[in-house]
């Protein structure tokens, strides 16, 4: 019999609590599965009918999605922060499974995008590169902190190979000199690893068909192109640029209240502008850094974008809002070219992105 089954999973590093429910919400089975691919596959092969699965976003979510997706009709990885039912009342693994299954059955889960297994290798390399960049920055900050703690003003020359001994001798404590020496060695290792990771990441990105399209956009070099492909995966996730802007943290948030008033016996909308509250705060940090950085690069090195920025400034728009407009244009152009399979054409700048995006 081809029946509908709804499976909710509560996952930790060693164990998965699985609850199976029918279309009326009645519990059919509850069991415990080891957190390994063999046990998970065996469990789902025992289930007949049309199986829908839900689990929360977490460390193992991407891996479980890859394991389960070929075996069932639907897998939803949900964002627990957006599901209030999961946060209210008592909490335990079994209670969470029942709540998650109820939301799955009612179609009330907010899913997190998981897909495009073809770019999984690039995603891993991008994560590795970004981690090494963060670690490198952390080591540089630690070096600066040592010098500041001894009342020495530090600048970028402190990282140069030929200037290091000179900077070390500025410290008046032998142990502080030893500490800085260790940090310099750590920094050298990290810089070498970061260069290797960047090379591997860019090499992998070049194998993707979208690479030549995206890198043609001004301001988007090999590293930024690789990051865009790894994070976005598919441009068809976003219907228009207005869905991609919030994901990049470039959507302007507005608020209004008391929008209507009574005129005689009819309600009329008030003629007042909405109040701007800045940019949205739920966004992908990698993409925001990519496109805001690309905007600065494009303004400084590309004639079309430099002229666009200057026109906005001439209209009285604040510099930060003008840069935001350029970043939004870059997002719109990238999405359009990626969907159409075309390279960047400066003559179509305004046509692709529009002129009223600030």
Structural commentary:
With 358 residues, the protein is α/β, with parallel strands linked by helices. It folds into three domains: 4-106, Nucleotidyltransferase, domain 5 (2-Layer Sandwich), CATH 3.30.420; 119-205; 211-251 and 280-353, no CATH class. It has 14 helices and nine strands. It has a five-stranded mixed β-sheet with strand order 3-2-1-4-5. It has a two-stranded antiparallel sheet with strand order 6-9. Strand 2 and strand 3 form a beta hairpin. It starts with a strand and ends in a 5-residue tail after the last helix. Mean pLDDT is 90; it is low at 352-358.
Features:
358 residues, alpha/beta, Nucleotidyltransferase, domain 5, 3 domains, five-stranded mixed beta sheet, two-stranded antiparallel sheet, 14 helices, 9 strands, 50% helix, globular, disordered C terminus
């Amino acid at each position: 019999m081809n029946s509908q089954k709804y499976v909710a999973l509560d996952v930790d590093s060693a164990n998965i609590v699985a609850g199976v429910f029918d279309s009326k919400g009645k519990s059919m089975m509850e069991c415990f599965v080891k957190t390994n691919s063999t046990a998970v596959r065996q469990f789902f092969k025992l289930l007949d009918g049309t199986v829908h699965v839900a689990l929360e976003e977490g460390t193992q979510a991407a891996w479980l999605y890859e394991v389960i997706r070929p075996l069932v009709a639907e897998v939803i990885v949900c964002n627990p922060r957006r599901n209030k039912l999961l946060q209210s009342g008592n909490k335990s693994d079994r209670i969470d499974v029942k709540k998650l299954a109820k939301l799955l059955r009612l179609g009330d889960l907010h899913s997190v995008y998981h897909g495009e297994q073809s770019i999984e290798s690039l995603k891993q390399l991008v994560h590795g590169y970004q981690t090494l960049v963060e670690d490198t920055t952390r080591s540089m900050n630690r070096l600066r902190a040592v010098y500041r703690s001894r009342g020495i003003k530090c600048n970028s020359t402190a990282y140069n190979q030929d200037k290091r001994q000179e900077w070390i001798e500025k410290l008046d404590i032998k142990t502080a000199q030893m500490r800085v020496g260790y940090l310099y060695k750590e920094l050298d290792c990290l810089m070498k690893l970061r260069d290797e990771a960047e090379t591997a990441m860019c090499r992998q990105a070049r194998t993707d068909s979208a690479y030549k399209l995206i890198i043609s956009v001004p301001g988007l070099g090999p590293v930024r192109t690789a990051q865009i492909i790894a994070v976005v995966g598919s441009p068809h996730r976003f219907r228009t640029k207005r869905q991609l802007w919030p994901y990049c943290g470039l959507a302007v948030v507005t608020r209004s209240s008391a929008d209507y008033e009574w005129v005689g016996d009819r309600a009329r909308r008030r003629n007042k502008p909405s109040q701007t509250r800045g940019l949205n705060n739920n966004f992908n940090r990698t993409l925001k850094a990519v496109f805001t950085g690309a905007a600065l690069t494009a303004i400084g090195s590309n004639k079309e974008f430099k002229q666009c920025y200057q026109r906005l400034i001439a209209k009285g728009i604040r510099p930060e809002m003008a840069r935001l407009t350029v970043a939004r244009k870059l997002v719109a152009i990238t999405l359009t070219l990626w969907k159409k399979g075309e390279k960047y054409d400066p003559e179509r700048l305004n046509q692709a992105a529009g002129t009223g995006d600030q």
